[in-house]
Amino acid sequence: MADQAPSIDYQHLFRSLADNFLVIAPDADATILDDTERHAAVAMKSRAEVVGKPFFEAYPAASQNEADIIRESHEHVRRYKQPHAMPLIRYDLERPAEQGGGLEERYWQATHYPVLDAAGSLQYIVQRTQDVTEQHLAELHARRMQQELTESQERARFTLEALPVMVWTTDPAGEVDYFNQRWQQFTGKSTEQLLGHAWTEDVHPDDRQRVTDNWRQSVQTGEESQQEYRLRRHDGSYRWVLARSQPRRNADGQITMWVGGAFDIHNQKQMVQELLDANEQQASLSDQAYQAYQLAESQRETFHNLFMQAPALICILRGAEHRFDFVNPPYQQLFAGRQLVGKTVVEALPEVIEQGFVDLLDRVYHTGETFYGNEIMIMVEQPDGSGQPLYLNFTYQLFSENGQKAGITVFAYDVTSLVQARKVLERLTNPSGN
Description:
By secondary structure, this protein is α+β, with helices and mostly antiparallel strands. The chain folds into three domains: 10-131, Beta-Lactamase; 165-264, Beta-Lactamase (2-Layer Sandwich), CATH 3.30.450.20; 304-429, Beta-Lactamase, CATH 3.30.450. 40% of the residues lie in helices and 28% in strands. It has helices at 10-15, 37-43, 47-50, 55-58, 64-80, 133-162, 181-187, 191-194, 205-221, 266-283, 287-309, 329-334, 345-348, 357-367, 416-429, and strands at 21-24, 32-35, 84-85, 89-90, 93-94, 103-104, 107-116, 122-131, 166-170, 176-179, 225-232, 238-249, 255-264, 313-318, 323-327, 371-381, 387-401, 404-414. Strands 1, 2, 3, 4, 7 and 8 form a six-stranded antiparallel beta sheet that branches. It has a five-stranded antiparallel beta sheet with strand order 10-9-13-12-11, sandwiched between helices. A hairpin with an 8-residue loop joins β5 (93-94) and β6 (103-104). The protein is elongated, with a radius of gyration of 37 Å. Keywords: Kinase, Phosphoprotein, Transferase. Residues 225-277 form the PAC domain. Its EC number is 2.7.13.3. It comes from Hymenobacter edaphi.
């Protein structure tokens, strides 16, 4: 007599499967008939709590939309007797009281399979559920990080293009690979025409060798570069610019790129030269003129340091309330000890209200007309409460984003020393005061 096959407890086998299975009756209520131990664990409900109950009584849906998605999947299997995979849904689970209670955010991927009898009639619906919460939340986090990175890159690009400064970048070897629109507008050339060392063709022939030698030395030594030279404008004229560049290093101290900026200082350069020329003429006339010459030389050195160390004050004000969004170190130094970024002009610099600067900002924001201020005096409040008068050449310029007004860019030179020097020159050239 042949050996009989051992008896198999299929219900025990089913319940022991290492996956999340739920057996549902094909009736309209989707009555729950059985589940695996694994399913009971992830659902946080025992088999005794759910078996014999309609699906949505055992597992109430968090929203009508979720319930409709599940019902449509059940109906698909009943009607077509084919498997149906549901789209990803959020279905929060209620923690047992011993685990603190409350809802736990969960995301699921579920597929419903038909089980047919010998006649092809639907006998059961088996639901296989996968908890994809960690994967889904990780994907959401990755998307948010990518979006933040994209926004950060766009913000940096906008800043480079919006500021009235000619900006460029190079590779570690000093080969230029980017010029912003300000540089292109100044020279009248595209980035493609300026890449590599082609930009040096616009440097004045008398300055070109000095500029290229100094730049090559900075690249070799890794030291910051700062130079004054004449640059050819799109109309063929040469303008004096002050150019500064510095290396960006990685965690190992290796240079990964260079970043530079240039400012048009032609007018200031001419003013200083005129001051020097006038003082040189006066120096030969008398001891008094000689003393004035010495004063002019001292002032020239002051101006030189001003141009070399803080050639421009730059900030970005956002919105109609003029809130500081970006402030460069020279601008911050002008208001040392004050928190600027994140505050409105009125909050950070209350002393400028009565001086009319907020009204000027409002006018530029609402009319879109750029304001050019020449040697405008501003009283800056000092820590001791006193007011310090400063003279600025500045530009208020409206910028837009997505076709909408976004704020104002501020670009300024501190010309206080220049104003004071001109007054000395006026006294020298017109001693009688007539």
